[in-house]
Amino acid sequence: MKRKLLATGVLAAGLALGQGVQAQVILTASSWVAPAHPLSRAQAAWCEDVAGATEGRVRCEILPAAVAPAPRTFDAVRDGLVDIAFSIHGHTPEHYRLTRIAELPLLGDSALATSVAYQRIHDRYLSGFDEHRGLKVLGVFTHGPGMIFNMRRPVSRIADLDGLRMRVGGGMVAEVARAIGVDARLAPAPQAHELLASGAIDGVFMPAESVRGFGLGQLLRHRTAVPGGLYNTSFAFVMNRNAWLRIPGRDREIIEGLSGEAVAARFGRHWEADDRRSIALQQVEGIRGITADAAFVARIRSRTAGLEGAWIALAERDGLHNARQVLEEFRKEIAGLQ
Predict the structure, then answer these.
(1) What confidence category does residue 1 fall into, taking pLDDT thresholds of 50, 70 and 90?
(2) pTM for this model (two decimals)
(3) Domains along the chain?
């Protein structure tokens, strides 16, 4: 009898353990930037909160290396090579058209404000167009305002950019560069250090954080901040659809509460803090900073005005029939949050 009871107890414990193991969902997570970068830190912090809120039933395994470079990350998540990751819409602009609203020039001066406003506009107007088909969107966000950095001379007017070879990323920033007549060289951000060190480029269009994040402080000498930002970059934090469906319903509800505007605020807050730290470090490293005056901003606005009109026309062709109103609402949301 004792043996039978013992065997029954062992069997019950084994079944309970098995059920516990089955109930735990492990999500693989990938990052194409260093662990210290605000993107990686924000993702890791989100994972920690998910594990805590679900009492360990859902947790992340952050992979030691990226499963794909930034331009192929959304596809890697969609194809199930990794469960969650973030990336930039502008690397594949043919797939993400409405999201360009968040990349237009002169939107705002705060990564936090722009990110939260973007998430609100995305929820109200853009998510229904399913540009992220095959992906569960956990949140959308932007980096801080794009700035002008170079190693040659102060840039206080558009003419000062003549002859400077500037690294730009994908998406709207390349169009901004063309609109203001810059000799733009398209390259991923992690290549900026090598390109500057080799003399292949003279400067970069980047947010303040990236100087610190990609170790460019010793290679640059001049910074021009443009009120409202020379450009912006649109990101999404996404999950594989099948991975999302593996999560039990009660835990999906918990994760929803940590996503959307909460994700936008988290990534925006991390980026904004690093923008500020980077500016302070740049002063120590001898990067001299100026702010574009009203005349310079007016010239940028004039040269890039067609980009706003082009986005409105594109969005209306894609079915967003009140695109101009949506853009105006986006700007008002940003202004109210700054």
Answers:
(1) very low
(2) 0.90
(3) 22-144+233-274 (3.40.190.170), 147-231+288-337 (3.40.190.170)
